[in-house]
Amino acid sequence: MRNFKIEENGKLESLLNYINKNGLFCLTFDNPRYMYCMESCFEDVSGVSEIDSILAMLYPQNNIKQVTSEKGEFSTVQEAFTPNSMFNFVEMIHSNNDYIFCDDLGDEWADHLTIDLKDFSINFIHSKYSNDETNSASRLQDVVGQGIKNLGNMHFSRQQILNKYSTTFADSYKSGKGANGKGKGVQTKISRIRKDAGNFKQDIDLILKNPKLHRKCILSCNFISKSNIEKELRKLQQGHKVGGHIIQWLWILSSFSHAAKDAGVFPMIYCAP
To answer: Are residues 2 and 58 in the same domain?
Structure first.
């Protein structure tokens, strides 16, 4: 990192010096209760005692292994996300929900927002794809950050969601980039209203007033394997040493769990078995 330079106030310095000077790094320890991050030291008093509740957030999906991209490829005549994309995968899982909206890009609350009148649930779904299962904590941090950032939006008002319905959701989907992942986006014929039960104003009134209403923040990640995570976290639970990245995963998953529950939201993660 010494070879990369950053210019600040007309002065060049190495990326390594910039990171060290501003404390832009995190350190984990053999004791998973502690983490040093951004010039502060944190203690997770729950520690390994909440491993069981963290594992309970993970919902293995066999078909997630068939996903080969996050959004798929796009064309101007396309009316649905490609079958092997994470977006299509999510829509298939929630195909029995009454309303499915694609809110990706722009002033987005989530990649998908669904409403299930039978389950009395409002679901925000954030998708992340990787070419393979990875131990990297950065990919997990990205999607967890998206979920936590939008927890407040899950308690939207009637007028806020009606505004979305009549503006953002009324448009067809335009990709953020071209078909080759570069350049301008492609204007497709994919309706952002992926499923509509037909009486949205009445249904949103009913569900927002229903005392059984509950909200779920769902992360859909093909690069996470529940069996692999459980294997490593059980070692930690039994007092054995594990790699630093496992402790990072524990902290990231714990932060997602606590943030969601503090917001009155159920945390869930779709993952590989």
So the answer is: no
In the three-class reduction of DSSP (H, G, I as helix; E, B as strand; rest coil), residue 167 is classed as: coil
Is 150:124 a contact under the CB 8 Å cutoff? Answer: yes
Q: What are phi and psi of 71, to 5 degrees?
A: -120, -15
Please report, as a single letter, which amino acid is at residue 29. Answer: F
Give Cα 272 to chain centroid, integer Å.
15
Tell me if 245 sits within 8 A of 136, measured CB to CB. Answer: yes
pTM passes above 0.90: no
96 & 34 share domain: no
For residue 136, what pLDDT band results from cuts at 50, 70 and 90?
A: low
Q: Given this model, what pLDDT does residue 243 score?
A: 78
Cα→Cα distances 237→82, 230, 233, 256, Å: 41, 10, 6, 19
